[in-house]
Write a structure and sequence with these properties.
Strand content: 15-25%
Strand order of the largest sheet: 5-6-7-2-1-8-9-10
GO molecular function: NAD binding; oxidoreductase activity, acting on the aldehyde or oxo group of donors, NAD or NADP as acceptor
Largest sheet: 8 strands, mixed
InterPro entries: GAP_dehydrogenase (IPR052978), GlycerAld/Erythrose_P_DH (IPR020831), GlycerAld_3-P_DH_NAD(P)-bd (IPR020828), NAD(P)-bd_dom_sf (IPR036291)
Keywords: Oxidoreductase
CATH architecture: 3-Layer(aba) Sandwich
CATH topology: Rossmann fold
Number of domains: 1
CATH superfamily: NAD(P)-binding Rossmann-like Domain
Protein name: Glyceraldehyde 3-phosphate dehydrogenase NAD(P) binding domain-containing protein
Helix content: 10-25%
Distance between the termini: 17 Å
Family: Belongs to the glyceraldehyde-3-phosphate dehydrogenase family.
Radius of gyration: 16 Å
């Protein structure tokens, strides 16, 4: 494997919305916070308020205390050790302010939006791409598993893609 150079090095970071902030959404945030090519600008979670979301991120039952620092919140903003992230509670994908926030990628982690018709509003609102954490059974939506078939991903063609499910990703 060896060290890899990101094709995005020295470019503008992708601006991400995490839609759904349960276990998978929180794991996405933890992974992205250490990635300079990607910036989480908003989290959309309708099942928990901002205080609860901050707490369950800081004191994760599986991964322990959030490191490297403190998590706080004020108004509609979460602060992850200096990184400010807008907290939304919007049910309908079409109502999420994708363009206003400059979001380029939506990571869909609710488990509820797993067909093209439910995901299309994110693209219609200005997102370049939607990555779904659950299977999407639709023609033209590739199931991409890193280390298995990532070479089949065509950015110019695939605007919606899925990371399959937890089972193939554990291979």
């Amino acid at each position: 494997f060896g060290p890899q150079v990101s094709p995005m090095a020295n470019s503008t970071p992708e601006r991400v919305l995490i839609n759904g902030y349960g276990r998978i959404g929180r794991l996405c945030l933890r992974a992205i916070l250490g990635t300079p090519e990607v910036e989480v600008v908003a989290i959309n979670e309708i099942a928990a308020d901002i205080a609860t979301s901050a707490y369950i991120t800081e004191y994760d039952t599986h991964h322990g205390k959030f490191l490297p620092g403190k998590i706080s919140h004020e108004g509609d903003t979460l602060d992850f050790d200096g990184r400010k992230i807008k907290f939304l509670q919007i049910k309908a994908p079409a109502d999420v302010p994708i363009a206003a926030l400059g979001i380029t990628i939506v990571i869909e982690c609710t488990g509820k939006h797993n067909d093209v018709a439910k995901l299309q509003p994110f693209l219609d609102s200005g997102a370049k791409r939607v990555v779904v954490s659950a299977p999407v059974k639709a023609p033209g939506v590739p199931n991409i598993v890193l280390g298995v078939n990532e070479q089949t991903y065509q950015p110019s063609v695939h605007r919606i893609l899925t990371a399959a499910s937890c089972t193939p990703n554990c291979i």
